[in-house]
């Protein structure tokens, strides 16, 4: 069986330290990689995930200090939905209350209970209680034990004007099947167990287009098992006339990029080699990791990046 589902989601933030603190201290995700934007080494690229960086748990950010907020709208992936144990729902409700984080819900969708918050940049995050979570290496903190920890992605929602062509892409090339409709949400699932196996397409004709900026999603990456599978899907998409990049080396995975028919940037990423390629699992995220081409400039690059230490 081929790997399917969401590999990672990448969003844009403003203040790096605030982003780092929110995802590690409030949400309790593991900071698994501190690196730079490979295409812009003057800025960070942060990776948050479970203990080892399992595909389907990886949320990454490009933080740009002082960047104005963007606007959620058509042509974007908008809501990120995290899977938590069903029994952890009240823990998170209490936690948001205690930490002074404004939340909405609980509300029901597809017979599931949802809690909704925004991150410090306005990125829309939702939490859904799931019964049968896969056995994945959850990350724990002093305040967040394993039985309540965020496990990874439940789903992501794409906001579009017309669903048909986006639906065709998901079902023809990415192994998703239509499984239901609830209001504006058309749900697609790979039917596989594991995290990140659901995508909702929200049919929202008549609303505004999204604008890039802090608090918006930059792209959604889908999984392929290996290079061979990636090559096959690239050929299929290119044959269809899709304007798709060559394979790009991202050190932790290899990637292709293209815009789906509604304008949302999609990536196709290999599961390997993974995040332990340049530092051991026990020390993930502790040191600044750079791709080989930037190593000669480590001193200047590191000096220009803002500190994440507590003052
Ligand atoms: Zn990516």
Question: What this model shows, in words?
Answer:
With 311 residues, this protein is an alpha+beta fold. It has one domain: 2,3-Dihydroxybiphenyl 1,2-Dioxygenase, domain 1 (Roll), CATH 3.10.180. The chain is built from five helices and 16 strands. It has an eight-stranded mixed β-sheet. Strands 6-7-8-5-9-12-11-10 form an eight-stranded mixed β-sheet, covered by helices on one side. The N and C termini lie far apart (49 Å). Bound molecules: zinc ion. Zinc ion is lined by residues 8, 10, 219, 221, 267.
Q: What's the topology here?
A:
Layout: E1 6-13, H1 16-26, E2 30-37, E3 40-49, E4 58-63, E5 76-85, H2 89-98, E6 104-109, E7 112-118, E8 124-130, E9 152-160, H3 164-173, E10 177-182, E11 185-189, E12 198-203, E13 217-224, H4 227-239, E14 248-249, E15 253-259, E16 265-273, H5 298-304
Parallel strand pairs: 1-4, 5-8, 9-12, 13-16
Antiparallel strand pairs: 1-13, 2-3, 3-4, 5-9, 6-7, 7-8, 10-11, 11-12, 14-15, 15-16
What small molecules does this complex bind? zinc ion
Task: Indicate how many domains the architecture comprises.
Answer: 1
CATH topology description: 2,3-Dihydroxybiphenyl 1,2-Dioxygenase, domain 1
The CATH architecture comes to Roll
Unreliable residue stretches: none
Q: What amount of the residues lies in strands? A: 35-45%
> What do we call the CATH homologous superfamily?
2,3-Dihydroxybiphenyl 1,2-Dioxygenase, domain 1
Give Rg in angstroms.
Answer: 19 Å
The neighbouring-strand order within the major sheet is 2-3-4-1-13-16-15-14
Please summarize the sheet with the most strands: 8 strands, mixed
Q: H/E element string? A: EHEEEEHEEEEHEEEEHEEEH
> What's the mean pLDDT score?
96
* Count of beta strands: 16
């Amino acid at each position: 069986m081929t790997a399917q589902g969401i590999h990672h989601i990448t969003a844009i933030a403003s203040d790096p330290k605030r982003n780092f603190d929110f995802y590690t201290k409030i949400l309790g995700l593991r900071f698994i990689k501190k690196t730079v934007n490979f295409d812009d080494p003057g800025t960070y690229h942060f990776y948050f995930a479970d203990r080892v960086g399992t595909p389907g748990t990886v949320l990454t950010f490009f933080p740009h200090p002082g960047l104005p907020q963007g606007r959620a709208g058509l042509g974007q992936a908008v809501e990120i939905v995290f899977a938590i144990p069903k029994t952890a729902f009240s823990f998170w409700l209490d936690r948001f209350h205690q930490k002074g984080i404004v939340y909405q819900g609980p509300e029901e969708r597809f017979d599931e209970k949802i809690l909704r918050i925004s991150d410090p940049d306005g990125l829309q995050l939702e939490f859904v209680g799931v019964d049968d979570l896969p056995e994945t290496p959850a990350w724990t903190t002093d305040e967040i034990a394993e039985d309540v920890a965020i496990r990874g992605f439940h789903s992501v929602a794409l906001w579009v004007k017309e669903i048909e062509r986006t639906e065709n892409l998901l079902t023809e090339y990415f192994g998703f099947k239509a499984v239901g409709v609830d209001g504006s949400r058309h749900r697609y699932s790979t039917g596989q167990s594991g995290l990140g196996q659901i995508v909702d397409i929200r049919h929202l004709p008549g609303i505004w287009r999204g604008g890039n900026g802090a608090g918006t999603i930059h792209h959604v990456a889908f999984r392929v098992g290996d290079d061979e599978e990636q090559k096959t899907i690239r050929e299929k998409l290119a044959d269809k006339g899709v304007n798709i990049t060559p394979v790009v080396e991202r050190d932790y995975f290899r990637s292709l990029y293209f815009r789906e028919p509604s304008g949302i940037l999609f990536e196709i990423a290999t599961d390997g080699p993974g995040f332990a390629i340049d530092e051991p699992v026990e020390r993930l995220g502790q040191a600044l990791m750079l791709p080989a081409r930037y190593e000669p400039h480590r001193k200047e690059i590191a000096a220009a990046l803002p500190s994440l230490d507590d003052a």
